[in-house]
Amino acid sequence: MAEIVIVPDRAAAGALVAEQIAKLVTERPDAVLGLATGSTPLPVYEALRERLADVDVSRVRGFALDEYVGIDPAHPESYASVIRREVVEPLGLSPELIRTPPAHDEDLAGAGARYEAEIAAAGGIDLQILGIGTDGHIGFNEPGSSFASRTRIKTLTEQTREDNARFFDSIDDVPRHCLTQGLGTIHDARHLVLLAFGEGKAEALAGAVEGPVTASLPGSAIQLHPHVTVVVDEAAASQLRFADYYRHAYANKPEWQTI
Ligand code: F6R
């Protein structure tokens, strides 16, 4: 099962995950990172600024989880812009090695397969950072997504559009479609690190970690993966039935084990 780590706050989560990423990049300078956007991963990217300051990151490669369809790539909320602003520039990564799904290509129908080919050519993703939507999505795999799905166009639920309206001037500006890695794509990453913060994520998180494995709650696909770390604050953990056991297991973890 996934390892569940309950931390006091976002900063502690950021520090923990940044430590693991720094270790990976130090051991493997051309590591391939799977990059989430949205609010959740920001504490990780913030912690990485300091943690990677003395690490050679020039060969680090990265693939974003998803991208909106139908907004200009130069729009400040396109995920290409977000990844450049929050990850590539502050961490000093090489821009040409960091990719976002090509949702602005003329040949949109073939864009998913091209992105899959790029990930495969890089040797696959070593560590995939994930957030979770209030409706249980990971990437933008909305309820009903196949566990075998690959990168493709999806229609966002209205709940997701409402949740993401905070990044735009009005809900009318939130795109209706996206190009997202599939659940099968995510499953192929060697290590999944899912973060969740706040009460609003508690129900989806409990479903993903402890509920039945079901396409109706796409985050539950993490239960099928052999190496998953879930890092959450107390509020997001508030509906976990076995929270005390997770705390106990983490407190008694052998020192030689990493996450
Ligand atoms: C973003 C992504 C989404 C978000 C999720 C949570 O690349 O794939 O699954 O992780 O919508 O969003 P936040 O973090 O803004 O609450």
Strand content: 15-25%
Give the % helix: 25-40%
* First-last Cα distance: 13 Å
Number of domains: 1
Mean pLDDT over the residues: 97
The assembly state of the depicted protein chains is single chain
Biggest sheet character: 7 strands, parallel
The coarse overall form would be globular
Molecules bound to protein: fructose -6-phosphate
- CATH hierarchy: architecture: 3-Layer(aba) Sandwich
Fold and architecture overview:
This protein has 259 residues and is of the alpha/beta class. It has one domain (3-251): Rossmann fold. It has 8 helices and 10 strands. The longest helix is centred in the N-terminal third of the chain and has 18 residues, at 10-27. The structure holds fructose -6-phosphate. Fructose -6-phosphate is lined by residues 36-40, 65-66, 131-133, 137-140.
Question: Which characteristics define this entry?
Answer:
3-stranded antiparallel beta sheet, binds fructose -6-phosphate, 259 residues, 10 strands, alpha/beta, Rossmann fold, single chain, 7-stranded parallel beta sheet
Could you give a short description of this structure?
This protein has 259 residues and is of the alpha/beta class. 32% of the residues lie in helices and 17% in strands. The protein has a single domain (3-251), classed as Rossmann fold, CATH 3.40.50.
Topology:
Layout: E1 3-7, H1 10-27, E2 32-35, H2 42-51, E3 61-64, E4 66-69, H3 79-91, E5 98-99, H4 111-121, E6 127-130, E7 152-155, H5 158-164, E8 177-180, H6 183-188, E9 191-196, H7 202-210, E10 228-233, H8 243-251
Parallel strand pairs: 1-10, 2-3, 2-6, 3-5, 6-9, 9-10
Antiparallel strand pairs: 4-8, 7-8
Helix pairs in contact: 1-2, 2-3
